[in-house]
Amino acid sequence: MISYIAVQPQSDVIETEFKGNSDESAKRQIEMQAKELTLEAPDVSANEENATVVVMPKDESTKLELQYTDAKGQLKIIIATKNGETWTLNKDVTGITIDSQTGQVTISYVAVQPESEIVATEVKGNSDISLASKVMMPRKEITPQSPSLNIDNKKGIVIIKSNNGSTELKIKYTNQQGRIITISANKINQLWRLNQRIKGIKIDPLTGEVIISELAVLKESIISVKAIKGNSDESKEARIKMPIKPIRKEQPDCDLKANNLINNKNDNCIDDIIEFKNKKLKLNSNKQLPETGEIDNSRNTILFSIITLGLAFIQKSRKKESKS
User: Which positions fall inside the Gram-positive cocci surface proteins LPxTG domain (predicted)?
Assistant: First the structure.
């Protein structure tokens, strides 16, 4: 055996042989193949957000070998080979895919044991195996429970609370203009914050509790919320209807007109009106008729009559109500 180490690449190697004192045999000639240079280790990277590992071979590479521990704890090997210009895997494994044009291999958390090591090497033609690249498979967080949604009918607000250590809330709602809006609340360095400021929506930075008022959301429209924990999948959607804020009832207006007096059965208002009328009567009691010196009581008499009729009507109404 003659190794490439001893012979100049692509030079001829000539072979002849003898048997005892025989003449030299015919020559056999062969060219020493060139030994491909050993490639550098393939590029590997872990994506914490998606819980995946990506392995990218060099442009000159023709073979990529990956070693990993599967979800059951068994050591596995999968090989990617370049034939012509097309890359393929030697077997189908759920959670492992390859780009047929570039040879990039993507390994999902589904195929590999969490936080176990993935080792990648590559070759070019007949080159020696490259140095190994190693990377750890990120752990995929467990999907959290749906957020808790509650209504405060007195205040007309919706209260959102996260569960199971969630780190993100995705909130979808319809604004006052009828447009669908999506915002997110994120926990960063133990503090919660909204990704945008919106009038009528606020968050507690310590607990992550989100309060939504009618200023931000179309009344009786649906608010939907999903929770995420780290790189977990989204939780099931929680939904709630935006309540209508109750209208605050105003105190009845104590009008001085006789019609309002008759229709208004508020005792306090009646007392105030009578007191006010009496004061007004007293103020006008000194008014004299021109050139006579007599006091004009006609206006006072009319006002007093109106008040008397009003009170009589109210008393009569109350008697009917008590009998019924």
Answer: 289-324
Q: Outline which parts of the chain fall under CATH 2.60.40.10.
A: 41-135
CATH 2.60.40.10 fits 41-135, yes or no: yes
By the 8 A CB rule, do 199 and 185 touch?
Answer: no
**Residue 144: HSE in the Cβ half-sphere, 13 Å Cα cutoff:** 23
Helices (H), the chain: 258-263, 267-284, 298-323
Residues 6+ apart with CB under 8 A from 157: 151, 211, 212, 213, 214, 243
Q: What is the end-to-end Cα distance of the chain in Å, rounded?
A: 122
Distance of alpha carbon 67 from alpha carbon 137, whole angstroms? 12
Domain 146-240, architecture per CATH: Sandwich (2.60)
Contact 68, 76 (CB under 8 A): yes
What beta strand segments (E) does the chain contain? 12-15, 28-31, 43-47, 52-56, 63-69, 75-83, 86-89, 96-98, 105-108, 117-123, 133-136, 148-152, 157-161, 168-174, 180-188, 191-194, 201-203, 210-212, 222-228, 238-241
Does this model's pTM top 0.90? Answer: no
Write out pLDDT tens, residues 110-167: 999 999 999 999 999 989 999 999 999 999 999 999 999 999 999 999 999 998 789 9
